[in-house]
């Protein structure tokens, strides 16, 4: 006997998707661009040269949230220094907006993989039958 995905789970995934759709442009406008502008004035914007535009907001959000200085080694020194500059330039509001984007992205991935795992185990059915 196969069960379909419950309605509450569908609404939860849609809520995370809607949150992600709103958070991504918000982080681009209020986190990525102001930090880029601030770092370009001092000629310290190295991350924009390495990462193409659609993925910059995610990388800047992770740069604000994660203290990468713990993983500083000889090989990755330039990358860690670029992330540390982003972290130092961020305001508390930018930290919260970055956290919103990270929770939305991680939530979407976790819930979608959870549904796929339950379908693989035969608990839920994602298809018509």
UniProtKB/TrEMBL annotation:
Keywords: Membrane, Transmembrane, Transmembrane helix. It comes from the Bacteria. The chain crosses the membrane at residues 7-31, 51-69, 95-118. The keyword Membrane applies. This is Uncharacterized protein. The lineage of its organism: Bacteria, Pseudomonadati, Pseudomonadota, Gammaproteobacteria, Chromatiales.
């Amino acid at each position: 006997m196969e069960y379909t995905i419950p309605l509450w789970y569908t609404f939860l995934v849609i809520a995370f998707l809607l949150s992600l759709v709103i958070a991504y442009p918000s982080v681009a406008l209020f986190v990525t661009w102001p930090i880029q502008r601030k770092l370009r004035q001092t000629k310290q914007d190295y991350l924009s040269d390495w990462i193409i535009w659609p993925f910059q907001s995610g990388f800047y959000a992770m740069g604000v949230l994660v203290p990468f200085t713990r993983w500083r080694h000889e090989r990755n020194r330039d990358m860690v220094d670029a992330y540390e500059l982003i972290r130092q330039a961020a305001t508390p509001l930018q930290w919260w907006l970055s956290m919103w984007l990270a929770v939305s992205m991680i939530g979407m991935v976790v819930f979608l993989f959870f549904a796929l795992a339950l379908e693989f185990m035969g608990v839920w059915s994602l298809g018509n039958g």
